[in-house]
Amino acid sequence: MKRVYIYKGFERFWHWTQAALIIFLAFTGFEVHGTFDLLGFEQAARFHRVASWMLIGLIVFAIFWHVVTGEWKQYIPTSKKLIDQVRYYSIGMFKGEKHPTQKTQLRKLNPLQRLVYLSFKLILVPITVISGILYMFHKTIDRNNIVVVQDISLESLAFWHTLGAFLLMVFLVVHVYMTTTGHTPTSNIQAMLTGYEELEDETDQAAVSDNLKSDSKPKKTTL
Ligand code: HEM
């Protein structure tokens, strides 16, 4: 085994801040929704709006970081070993079989993770954020009579926003469970905290050189 630097500083900051903000937004959002009463509607709505601007700011920085470091290439979907990966998570890992794909610095996501995280970034987060922004400015937009959104009712925006929030919570539960399926139950979480992970040596080397030959390699960066 070799200790490899997998997650860079900004990536770890972005991951944990995003997680904290989404949990806080879910907490305040579901209070606004009327699911429970703790802070009071006014306070929950105020906190929700502040946190939503923080999340938007974080997303802007994260997009910039993914583009300039080339890390976005880690999310390019592939069908290679996708079925093997699904089989591993549903049957193989319970039988103690070996992981079908090897994690490396330049290929940190397995085929299933690529697909799930790409959908998270391109579908789930945009549904929630865009419906949230339209929700926030609905009255102003109506007043200014902007044609594009004129016909979208507040009810349908609330529906899409709540659906996005609900799916984000489902994602969170599944995601936390999946983090326990590494070499040890806490190795993936530790890697996202420290940046380092213990990976198999020879296969790692082989996979790295394999990856270096590929056209779509992300830049090796220490950002
Ligand atoms: C940039 C992101 C977001 C924006 C701009 C946003 C904006 C809003 C706004 C304007 C409201 C109406 C309450 C109010 O007037 O303040 C709202 C409600 C709500 N938000 Fe968000 N939000 C965002 C992210 C999230 C996230 C990540 C979650 C959960 C994971 C969430 C869950 C909810 C829920 C459940 C409601 C109640 C919907 C209803 O029943 O009407 N929001 N949000």
Automatic annotation (TrEMBL):
Pfam families in the record: Ni_hydr_CYTB
Main location class: membrane
Give compartment(s): Cell membrane
* Gene Ontology cellular component annotations, sorted alphabetically: plasma membrane
Locate the Cytochrome b561 bacterial/Ni-hydrogenase domain: which residues? 7-195
Q: Which family does it belong to?
A: Belongs to the HupC/HyaC/HydC family.
Please list every transmembrane segment annotated in the UniProt record, as residue ranges. 12-30, 50-68, 115-137, 157-178
Per the UniProt record, the source organism is Gaoshiqia sediminis
Name assigned to this protein: Cytochrome b/b6 domain-containing protein
Under the heading PANTHER family, the entry gives: CYTOCHROME YDHU-RELATED, NI/FE-HYDROGENASE 1 B-TYPE CYTOCHROME SUBUNIT
Tell me, what is an example of a GO biological process annotation in this record? respiratory electron transport chain
Protein keywords: Cell membrane, Electron transport, Heme, Iron, Membrane, Metal-binding, Transmembrane, Transmembrane helix, Transport
This protein's superkingdom? Bacteria
Q: How does it sit in the membrane?
A: Multi-pass membrane protein
Task: Give an example GO molecular function.
Answer: iron ion binding
